[in-house]
Amino acid sequence: MPERPVTSLEVIVDMGLCESHGQCVFAAPQVFAFDEDDVLVYEPAPDVSQYDKVVAAAAACPVRAIRIERTTEGGAHPEAATGNNPGPTR
After folding, report:
1. Contact, 24 vs 47, CB < 8 A?
2. Counting Cβ atoms within 10 Å, is residue 84 exposed (0-12), middle (13-18) or buried (19+)?
């Protein structure tokens, strides 16, 4: 069965786990950044065109503080930031 296209994307960062290593900022700078106090800020609902980069950012997080929830035409699919996220859906 072919993969269904991603229709929306939600990023959840557990700020209690985040240690500001910055790997997510390198992987997806359009979604993740540091503010003037070096605190992580992020776009919780990035454009679906950022999907591959957000998955890479979650996989790169050394403390696994990033979760992704994507919605396809068939419904929501939560993904953990384990580096074992499914590949991009087109």
Report:
1. no
2. exposed
Query: pLDDT tens track of the chain, all 90 residues?
Result: 556 788 899 999 999 999 999 999 999 999 999 999 999 999 999 999 999 999 999 999 999 999 999 888 766 666 644 444 444 333
Rounded distance between C-alpha atoms, residue 13 and residue 57, angstroms: 11
Residue 46 CB: number of other CB atoms within 10 A? 20
Predicted TM-score (pTM) of the model is: 0.78
CB 81 within 8 A of CB 68: yes
What is residue 48's DSSP assignment? Answer: G
Residue given tokens 């240690």 in the structure block: 19
Q: What share of the chain is helix, strand, coil (3-state, %, to 5)?
A: 20, 30, 50
Owner of token pair 């700020």: 15
